[in-house]
Amino acid sequence: MQQQSALKNRVARDLASWKRIEENLVERYGRKVLYDRDFLKAKRDIYRYIRRKYNRSALNLYERTELKVLRGQHRRMMRQLYPNPFVRLTRNMLVFAGNVLLLPARVGISALKTVFMLPQTNDVGYKAGVLPSSSTQQKPGQTQGKDQQPILRTIPLEKKGQGQSKAITRKMPVRSRVHMPARQAKGVRL
């Protein structure tokens, strides 16, 4: 049972990979690197990354337990990096204020990226809005001549206000609506 849970514990797997990196650093720079302030900051960042990585995902019991222990280790490390409670409080307030101020900027930048997005390629490698023509597929080793049709055909644009390309959708079969029976009075069971 222990071995099966170890295979399914993604948090432990990430921590084990960090442990290997840590051992390589100790081998390279000596044991004193473990107490170095820059090393502790890097370790704190790794712990924060692992906690955020699994923050919203469905976790099993072992992963939840591992994250709780990791949160405690992160707190202990913060107390070790910033031993003065007033300095720690000031730092946390400044980080919080910076995040509050930067939140609208991040939202605005992501909105601008979606509005002014350049054409991207999809998983197959075709540009967005361009599909291969089925009648003019190019065979391996075949070159396209001047008199041949182009290999790719474009999807026609709709003439709406913004000139966006037409989305490719798959039509689902039409199913009849399921009518639920009227609710019975309370206490009456059939």
Write a short abstract of this structure:
The protein has 190 residues and is mainly alpha-helical. Helix content is 51%, strand content 3%.
**What's the overall geometry?**
extended
Helical percent range? 40-55%
Largest sheet: 2 strands, antiparallel
Provide the low-confidence segments as ranges. none
Report the total helices: 5
Oligomer: single chain
* Arrangement of strands in the largest sheet: 1-2
Distance between the termini: 45 Å
Radius of gyration (CA) equals: 28 Å
H/E element order = HHHHHEE
Provide the structure class.
mainly alpha
Number of beta strands: 2
- In round numbers, the mean pLDDT is 74
Strand content: under 5%
How would you sum up this structure, described in words?
This protein has 190 residues and is mainly α. Among the domains are: 2-81, no CATH class; 84-118. Helix content is 51%, strand content 3%. It contains 5 helices and 2 strands. A two-stranded antiparallel ribbon has the order 1-2. Helix 2 packs antiparallel against helix 3 and helix 3 (37-53) runs antiparallel to helix 4.
What topology does this entry show?
Layout: H1 2-8, H2 10-29, H3 37-53, H4 61-81, H5 85-115, E1 130-132, E2 152-154
Antiparallel strand pairs: 1-2
For the structure shown, list the relevant keywords.
190 residues, mainly alpha, two-stranded antiparallel ribbon, 5 helices, 2 strands, extended
